[in-house]
Structures are given as structure tokens and as C-alpha cells.
Amino acid sequence: MQCTGLSKMRDYQEDNRMENTKKSTGKMKEKQALKKKVDWSGSLIVASFAGAFGSSFLYGYNLSVVNAPTVYIKKFYNGSWEGRYGHVIDGGNLTLLWSVTVSIFSIGGLVGTILTTPIVKIFGRKYTLLINNVFAVVAALLMAFGQLAGSFEMLVLGRTVMGIHAGVSLSTLPIYLSEISPKEIRGSLGQITAIFICIGVFIGQILGLPEIFGNESLWPYLFGVIVVPSLVQAGILPFLPESPHYLLLEKQDRNGAEKAFQTFLGKEDVSREVEEVLAESQAQKSVKLVSVLQLLRNRSVRWQIITVIVTMACYQLCGLNAGLAIERLGRRPLLIGGFGLMVIFFVILTVSLTLQNHAYWLPYLSIFCILATIASFCIGPGGIPFVLTGEFFQQSQKPAAFMIAGTVNWLSNFSVGLLFPFIQNGLKTFCFLVFAVICLAGATYLFLVLPETKNKTINEISQAFAKRTLEGREMSQFSSETKSSEEQEHNFPSTVDNGEIKNRII
């Protein structure tokens, strides 16, 4: 009997092993099949790069391009003012005028963000991006020919129009890319936006060198260059399909949506994708969207809202107006590490600028620190805040969350553009320490509060934030209990002392 039981147990274990082997083999086959299915079609790659080059690249470029020719643009402002009014503009008003020129880009961006929803609904994703190129070309012409016309107003107006372009493009491009890509690579494809923002910042710094366009005679070409990415995008996008989601849900064009899916996914059978879009649409119809005020009042997502505000504010206030490594390393280490490195390079930059006349190699160290700061920004803060906003909230809360994030983003950008010239005048070479403090504060907050969100569901992320809330309540409760016990101890001896005194008096 014992032998029979042992043999049955061995058979049972063997069956379990075979079943587990079959399951693991099946999972491996599923993964291999998934990898085969998720191919990057040529149309998808072209659409991604053309869209990002004419949209997010220009956003990054226009953030940094105004830095290099500052001295020459101020000189142009002085000259045009003197020619018009017979005297030069005083220093304070010149600084204010320059601050408005830089920061008005963000006001335009906020306007563009607000305009995006109705424009996208009427014209679709692709044609919104195409129409948006008109703003870029008009802005480039205004800024490039402002000096020739002797009108600084043209430069200010051009920056405003360019901001509208940035607001529309940063809102429309992520929608278009997410709707034309397979869901398995949607996150990685979405990072193209962040990558091209960083590339734009870098190219703006390079073209602004005195040896290229960053000199008195050639600085208008820095703004004229803007037409190149716009024309490239305008020449490519018409040959690509519209978003299949827009065709199917807004235009009720099932055949058009199927053809668009076939083009972007590189396969004939797209019935599964069409049905998924229809099912998603039905699910969203039953979801009641949350307003911004309702989201702000929701205590269960309080830490998520604070974290989005902090990351978005630091994203702009860190002094620079992520790549595919996000999926490997996670959001938390890249954000904290990126801001931490920026603190280090800002401090070194401050030292090198302060002592630059003491050694011939210190100016080169300053250039290295600027490039290293840009690189540190790109590895984490450059794109992760937008990713986190999408991961923190449920579908019904996302529109309100993105509205909050976008508003904080543009207003913070406006604050930096408006205040930095005054900070620079006041602190001179120590002005970058302000950004170092902001980055340090942001990194500290994220280290204490932000959980890792990579490969986590919304429920898991919410639970992680809920732990922070419970820990905070327990700490406050502990401190209040400690305080009350200390008060009791403090009152006890006083009572005894009073009793002793009373006894002595009696």
C-alpha cells in the first residue's frame, strides 16, 4: 500500500512538472508570437519621426534658442527704440521687455493647449498637425524679419504665435502617436516626443554658438531655421493616413480605419484592433468624466496630484526650457538621478563661471557643465512627468489631471522666462544656484514620496500612494499623542508643586 501511494505521488508530481513545462513553453511561444506581431512598419516610423521633428523638436528648440543671442537682441531693442523715440530704453524696462519676449512663449502655449480639443475634434489628429505648421511658418517669418523691419513687436508677436504652435503640437502629437501604434509598443513610441524635445534643446544650443548663428549679424537665422522642420512635416504627413480612432469613432469610416491600421501595423487582418477600439469607445461612454475641481477635492489621489504638480513645476523651473531607458530602469531612479545630477552640474557651473578668469580651461568646463545639465535633464525629467501623469489616474480622471499638469507646466515656464533675467542681473554668476535648490527640493520630495510605477497597474500605484497617506496619518497621530503625554507630564509636577505650596501655607 505504501509503495502504491508513493508511486501515485510520483506520478502526480510528474504530471505537475509536465503541466508546468507546457505552461512555460506556451508562454514562451506567446511571447515569441507577440514579438513577431509587433513589428515597426515603415509608415509608423516615418509618421513618428516626421510628427516629432515638426512638433516636439520645435518646442525644445524654441525653449533654448533665445538664450545665445540675448545680448544682440537687446542691442536691437535699444536701437529700434532709439530710432523711434530718440533715446535709448533704460535698463529696467529693457530687462522687462526681454523677459516678456522670452516668457510670452508660455502664454501662447497655454492658449494652444486650450484650443487643441475643439480643433482635434473638427479636423482630426493629422490635419491638426498640418494646420499647426502655419503657426510655425508665420512665427518664423515674424521673428526672422523683425530686425530688418526695425520692429521688436514682431519678435514678441512671433514668440507668442510660436507658443500657440507648441501648445497645439504637444497636445496633439501624443494622441496621434498613441492611436496609430500597437498597444504593446505604445509606451516606447510615446517617448519619441520626449527624445525630440531634448534634441531640440541641444540643437538650439549648438546653432546658437558664435561660430554658427549666435552672433550680431546672423542671429535672425536662428528663428528662420524654424521653417525647416515645419516644411518637412508638411511634406510627409499628407501621404500618411489619419488616426484610425478618429476615422472610426468621429467619421464612422470603418473602411478608412481598417486601411489606416493596415498601413501603420503592416498587416492585413486588423479586425481585432478595430473591435478593440469600438469596445474601448463603449467603455468610455459609460465613464463619467471628473472635473478639475472634483479631482482636486478627491483625497484619495491627493499625493498623486501633488506629485504631478511638483514634477511638472521642477520640469520647467529646473533651468531648461527620457529616453527609452525609462522602461528598463524605471521612473523613480531616472527622475531622482536626473535632478540630482543637475544639482551637481549647476554647482560646478556656478564655481567655474565665478572663477573663469583664473584659469584658461574654466570656460571650457562651463560649456561641459551646460551640456551635461542638458543630458541629465534628458535622461529623466525631460519626459517622465508626462508619463507619470498618464499612469497615476483612472480614465475618468485623466482629462482633468492633464489639464492641471499642462497649466502648471506652462505657468512655470512663464515664471522662469519672466523672472530669470532679473535673477541673473541680481545674482550674476550665482543665478544657477536657484535652479540647483529647485532641483534638490524636487529630488528630495520624489525620493520621499514617489513610488516606482514601472509595470504597475493603477490600483497598485494607488495603494503605494495610500501607504504614504497612512504613514503620514500615523506619524501625525504619534506626534499628537506624544505631545499630549508630554503636556500631562508637564502638568503633573506643576500640580504636585501647587499641592506642596498649599500644604506649606496651611
Outline the secondary-structure elements:
Elements lengths: L1 H36 L4 H13 L1 H9 L5 H16 L5 H33 L1 H20 L1 H4 L2 H29 L5 H22 L11 H6 L2 H10 L7 H6 L4 H12 L5 H15 L6 H6 L4 H16 L8 H4 L1 H24 L7 H18 L4 H9 L5 H30 L4 H18 L8 H48 L1
Q: Number of DSSP strands?
A: 0
Name the poorly predicted regions.
1-6, 23-37, 324-328, 491-506
Q: Could you give the order of the helices and strands? A: HHHHHHHHHHHHHHHHHHHHHHH
- Specify the number of helices: 23
Question: So what's the overall shape?
Answer: globular
Question: Characteristics of this structure?
Answer:
23 helices; single chain; 506 residues; 80% helix; mainly alpha; globular
Can you give me a brief rundown of this structure?
By secondary structure, this protein is mainly α. The protein has helices at 2-37, 42-54, 56-64, 70-85, 91-123, 125-144, 146-149, 152-180, 186-207, 219-224, 227-236, 244-249, 254-265, 271-285, 292-297, 302-317, 326-329, 331-354, 362-379, 384-392, 398-427, 432-449, 458-505.
Task: Describe the 3D structure.
Helix content is 80%, strand content 0%.
